[in-house]
Amino acid sequence: MRDAEEGWALQKKLKVQDGYISRFTGTIYTTSSLAVLLGTERKTNFTVSPLIYFFPILRILCFVIEKERRTIKGDAEKVLKSRRTFTSSSVCSETEVQDGSVTVYHLHPEHHRLCATGTGEKLKPKVFIIDMFKPEGAIWYNIPEFDLLARNVTVPGLSPLFPEAHCTQDGSICQVITGEAEINAASSISALVYSNIFDLTTTYFLVAGIAGVNPKVATIGDVTFARFAVQVALQYEFDAREKPADFPTGYVPQGAVAPDQYPTSIYGTEVFELNTALRTLAVGFAKNATLNDTTATQEMRSLYANNSAFAPGASSGPSVRECDTATSDVYFSGTLLGEAFENTTTLFTNGTGVYCTTQQEDNATLEVLLRATLAKLADFSRIIVMRTASDFDRPHDGVSAAQNLFGDAPGYHPSVENIYLAGVRVVEGIVNGWSQTFEQGVKAENYIGDIFGSLGGVPDFGPGSSTSLRKRRTKNAQFT
Fold it and tell me: Tell me, what DSSP letter sits at residue 377?
């Protein structure tokens, strides 16, 4: 921190918890800068030209600065002992890092909030909740089980709308809101894992959001846990009015020439498979929750009762289910698209996956966490994808796809509430069972990872053997 800037900032200070921030310059005085004032970390000399003695006004100013310095000196020792992590702002920027001490940031004057600081020790959460937009995130606040707003940490590169990660005071449970759709999810989770603020090597990630739902498999209000996440929109596409007459859909896998052929042009993000042993434990925890339901939601379900194929959608109330999720940036509605993506999920997972929910982020999030695992920054076996069903992906009989999309969605509020009701059981189950079960990890009994076999093992999905996939990956690498 520049000496002159330190001096000027001391003219006016604002005491915030255990640190100080200048209203005049926006400069933050955290434990590191207070230590500087005490002379415990390095000596700071605030020098003034001898010409100052010819200017009475400036002499008075120097006197004020020295008085302010002595005033805060008495509190500095206490501040240094606390080593707090302070709240933060989207306009923070790092200005100084002291080895083994505190990171010091600037803050825009109008915010008057302290930016994230640390002691050189990374936060090491046991559970990191990943939400996608504000209502999903806010449902976790002001709950009796734990306080996610106790520590608020600015992470450079997070969404401008959600620039902070939130944590409990002990750092055991944290949360991030990524922003919606694949680009936001990938950008935010990348910023998180590469921020060097957190140690995520033993962290369990709980993706906790709402989703559309296939009435052939589940219903609104349900809480679902996925084994597979399938990027169903990563395909060729014809406008349905121009597709070949014998094609049931305008979607064709990349490299294929018909909708029922496995893609031969593979990017690697088409399918992810998660730890089923961990999913089983998460489902067990979630089943202890009493889920939210409403009369309006029950009435909506009853409209699907006339079609026997929609029996799960017409069920009497919400439940916890094991079924898979489809990722698409396009927020779609309609029977034809719903059936097309059912078939895509079945095809891409070699008949194992069951398309249940549709959302806009999960494959992007999982690709980042897979790469972080390869970089030894995270553990892909510790990921849970939980989606609660807010609306049906297709209409009931007698209603158009447009009416289904633009009409009332009575499942929305119960689905948001059920994120918390079921999710908190999962979070508490992991934290309370940490030493007995979760600290050492839950061993995967199935293949986990991507279509390339990047994490080792043999994928149980794909166009052929894992050997051919590895050969393709090796061949591609020769030209990079």
Answer: S
Structure tokens at 111: 């915010």
Q: Look up tokens 């679902």; give the residue.
A: 224
Domain(s) labelled CATH 3.40.50 in the chain stretch across: 188-474
Burial class of residue 198 in the structure, from the number of CB atoms within 10 Å of its CB (0-12 exposed, 13-18 middle, 19+ buried) = buried
Structural element, H or E, at residue 184: helix 182-193
Residue 205 has pLDDT above 90, yes or no: yes
State yes or no: pLDDT of 137 exceeds 60: yes
For the chain, counts of helices (H) and of strands (E): 12, 19
Cα 463 to Cα 460: distance, rounded to the nearest angstrom: 10
Alpha-carbon dihedral sign for residues 232, 235, 240, 246: negative
Question: What are the tokens at 106?
Answer: 């600037």
Q: Which among 39, 2, 15, 421 is positioned nearest to 223, based on CA atoms? A: 421
Neighbour count for residue 471 (Cβ, 10 Å):
12
Evaluated on CA atoms 31, 36, 38, 42, the torsion sign reads positive
β-partners of residue 165 are: 153
45, 39 in Cβ contact below 8 A? no
3-state secondary structure of 153: strand
* Contacts for 63 with CB less than 8 Å, ≥ 6 apart: none
CA–CA separation, 117 and 169 (whole Å) = 14
Write down the pLDDT at residue 62: 54
**For 379-421, what is each residue's pLDDT tens digit?**
999 999 999 999 999 999 999 999 999 999 999 999 999 999 9
Task: Report whether 58 contacts 50 (CB < 8 A).
Answer: no
Quick one: how far is CA 442 from the chain centroid? Answer: 21
Which tokens go with 236? 């060729």
Distance in angstroms (rounded) separating the CA atoms of residues 273 and 279: 11
State whether CATH 3.40.630 applies to domain 188-474. Answer: no
DSSP 10-30: TTS-EEETTEEE-TTT-BEE-
Under the banding of pLDDT at 50, 70 and 90, the label for residue 50 is low
Distance from the Cα of residue 32 to its chain's centroid: 30
Could you tell me where the DSSP H helices lie in 316-400?
Answer: 335-348, 362-374
Those residues with Cβ within 8 angstroms of residue 439's Cβ, 6 or more apart along the chain or in another chain: 202
Which is higher by pLDDT, 35 or 417?
417
* Cβ within 8 Å of residue 275, ≥6 positions away: 381, 382, 383, 442, 444, 446, 448
Tokens of 134: 């504000």
Task: Note whether 356 and 217 are within 8 A (CB).
Answer: yes
